[in-house]
């Protein structure tokens, strides 16, 4: 079948997230980058489009121009799906316009800056035929998908404890300087929303806890850290999780964990065993059992789950990383667009993004109300 024509909003120049999405989109040869708006400066956007080998007429000044001119093209020529790689405050207005005009959407997280905006998108998408993915990137790792399959198959028994941690230190050099913290867009509520740390990386951990366990968080209790009175955004936090009466967990997220790079770990314990995974060593899934030696599972072996193997592109012993993980999500979206979805969880949905926004708002609310338990369900 023909490749899906993809447009991109943002992600130009030396953007890390931009190259991650472009490589992922090309990985399974399911997408063809056709055009977009790569920068608010049109000249810079044109220069970047030329680097990608795009037709200058498909590099637009803004989203409105892109939608208008693409819809004037024959259906077999126009952009079909659009990736939103802009700062948080632009996610909602862009996604809304795209859904209302019939485009499929791949959106960076957090989905929006408010829960109400996420609800509106959910209502619009429910009435459309558009596929909508939110890039909780780490769900695409083969060994995370293996973990999900093993838990679903009962290999560690009934879940008793869930522990997710996401530690970074990147904001530490900025937060202690008043001018620097005031100039950082992630610490600006107008651009980032009500949360920095929980909104940026805590939602990854929340989504992962629900994704691999197959369970939903019922209640949360949060304790956040802002460090300075003039800083309106959390940069560290601990959230207690209740999945049920006897299934509890903890989510720890920090951007002031000095020296940490991207330390995301997932630990799930059942009554028959436990599973551990570390994002900085993503090819290793550790299986723990009572009175048995520690087992280390690696991707690419025939004894692993079909879901894990479908996301594995190299033979055993050849490392796969975050580009591959994002590529698996893009592949899942492509299969959905082409009506060939095989596995639940092949890509994070708008519903996952909506739930992430609910988690952000309830976490901040729990903290501000004096660290109290709050129900996740509306």
Automatic annotation (TrEMBL):
Residues 5-136 form the Gfo/Idh/MocA-like oxidoreductase N-terminal domain. It comes from the Bacteria. Gene3D superfamilies: Dihydrodipicolinate Reductase, domain 2 (3.30.360.10), NAD(P)-binding Rossmann-like Domain (3.40.50.720). Residues 144-275 form the GFO/IDH/MocA-like oxidoreductase domain. InterPro entries: Gfo/Idh/MocA-like_OxRdtase_N, Gfo/Idh/MocA_oxidoreduct, GFO_IDH_MocA-like_dom, NAD(P)-bd_dom_sf. One of its GO terms (molecular function) is nucleotide binding. This is Gfo/Idh/MocA family oxidoreductase. It comes from Christiangramia sabulilitoris.
